[in-house]
Amino acid sequence: MQTILLVLLGGALLFPRLGDTYLWLDEAETALLGKNILTYGYPRMYDGRNLMNYYPPLHNEDYVEVVLPWLPYYVSAVSFYFLGVDTFAARFPFAVCGLIVIGLFPVIVRQLTDDRWTQIVAPWVLVLNVPLLLYFRQCRYYGLVIVFTLLIIWSYLHLANGHKWALWSLTAAAIGLFHSHYVVCAGTLMGLGMHWVMVYFYRISWVQIAIMGALFALFTVPWVLYAQFWTHGYVWFSLRKVFIFIGTLCARLSENFAAPILISLMGLWLFDRTRRFWRYLCMASGLCCAGTALNIPLFPYLTAICAVLALIKGWMDVRHCSLQTGVHLIWMLPAGIILTLSFFSPSNEIRYLVGAAPLVLIALVMAFSRLRQSFPKLAVTCLALMMCSNLLNASPALALRALSFSALDFGAFMTDSEWSNQVGLKKLLPPEDSWFHRMAVIDEKIVQLGVVRSYPAGYLYELTHRYDGPTEGIVEYLTRHGHPDDTILTDYGSIPLIFYTGMRLLPERLIYEPEINVQPDWIIMHRGDFLQVTESFQRVLDTKYERIELPYPDLLWDNRPELAYHHFSVPSDQPPQVIYRRLQPGAHL
Fold it and tell me: What are phi and psi of 106, to 5 degrees?
């Protein structure tokens, strides 16, 4: 009965206005390649009119996309085939993934823990978790990654309990995860491997693991040899990068799906004096995660140190623990994903960790369940605060805003005070431009995070009101006032325009390297420093183009799913979007 209610609530939270907000860049990439599959049978990045530009390029010499997995594109293509090519159809199958996760999650919770309170509360925490709902409503790999991660856990635990059929579902889920996201799949299997070696080595035979490995290789290695995605310049390695990524990913995982300050509070309340290591490590980890979220220098390294210490201590505890259960997957899988991303991923975005988010929520509810035993009112209050507001996330920024000085003031004191000059501290600091820029970034982040809001209230507003973003405004204006054969030059966001208008998009390099015989019919620029406009290009805009202000906000990424960039309503404090229309006839490419 609980699962039915959860699925019904999930449907009510996932599908309303699913096609209202236009696709942003990453979504449009998935949708456009899915659309091209209907024409060519494979994800082709050049459709005879437009080439999807990336640097380094994502395609091979035949314009076949080979850097990213294909499964999300084919999922979009199937949806377009049956529902038509539009925004709703692009997002629909991934929202369905959200429903599958909501229905499967209670089963996973019951497999991982016998705690009745956690079994009841954790599924409701997941279905009401706004960050996850936003990811499920994206035309992107996120929903697939979460579904396959949970199916891997479900199958793995069944296999450990003697159900031999689970070997086939485990293998199929692993293959599906690989073709949804390579690096996340590697990290998930790494975490699963750690758990098998340390916990379930005697419950799942090495023969079964070998069979799974052989079948997995059969359906993945040929693709790897064909794609050779590592040759496109997206993977790089340095020890400094690994530590920064570990710290940043840990901080972002807690910032989006729990709260950094909550980790410290749990350390205070959950661990007694006999477990001083975990008590002090949790307190330090929470503070370090908060510092990383606020962009304070050195804190990513401190967070990484806390994470590595926790992993070492966790492995030691498991080796000497008589209770060998699947519950250790809750921390081993995220650890495997974070370590793998830190070594092999070119970016440390929170979106790569969405597969681990359900496990984080289980761990969080289990901690609250334990806290209930000693402080029931406090546990319920903190859980309600975490669900209904961002107060626990905003607390560190609010505390810093209450100080009588800013980060810039602190930076000035460290460089100009007599005390710092006497002890020679100024010589140890970075150059003044870099140092004060860091302080300004901290102040900006403190202002951004130090605002208390209710994400559930914002999400309900989004479900019940129109969202007219800049992409929609640009597309509508071009459709009304342009011609299908017009050419467009933009500094960012060309792929959504290709998907919605079909007009010819010129290479972005022409902003820096203008050609006399190329005069686009339309030029679309965004504010900020994503691309700097040269003086010569600005003269072209001022003399040969009509400046048009649209009644839509100028948002570089329109509406990304990450909480830091997501707009539940149309921002009213942003300047208007500006586009330019050519005044005099010019040559076309």
Answer: -60, -35
The radius of gyration of the chain from alpha carbons, rounded to an integer in Å, stands at 25
Question: Chain-centre distance of CA 311, in angstroms?
Answer: 23
Tell me the range of 95-109, 312-326, 376-390, 507-521 where mean pLDDT is highest: 95-109
Helix (H) or strand (E) holding 546: strand 545-553
Kindly tell me if the per-residue pLDDT of 428 is higher than 80. Answer: no
Instruction: Give SS3 for 469.
Output: coil
Q: Are 162 and 316 in contact (CB under 8 A)?
A: no
3-state helix, strand, coil in the chain (%, to 5): 65, 5, 30
pLDDT, one tens digit per residue, over 169-185 is: 999 999 999 999 999 99
Token pair in block for residue 49: 């009119």
pLDDT value of position 589 = 38
Instruction: Give me the residues paired with residue 489 across strands.
Output: 523
Cβ-count burial of 535 within 10 angstroms (0-12 exposed, 13-18 middle, 19+ buried)? exposed
Give, to the nearest 10 degrees, the angle between helix 182-198 and helix 142-160. 20
Q: Quote the DSSP letter at residue 405.
A: S
Q: How far apart are CA 442 and CA 407, in angstroms?
A: 7
The pTM is what? 0.94
DSSP H/E element including 57: none
pLDDT at position 140 over 50? yes
**Mean pLDDT for the chain?**
91
d(CA 340, CA 418): 46
CB 259 within 8 A of CB 382: no
**CA 299 – CA 248 distance, rounded (Å):** 9
Torsional sign, CA 225, 229, 232, 238: negative
Task: Note the pLDDT of residue 587.
Answer: 41
The two three-digit tokens of residue 281, written as one number: 């490590």
Q: Which of 565, 525, 519, 571 is nearest to 544 (CA)?
A: 519
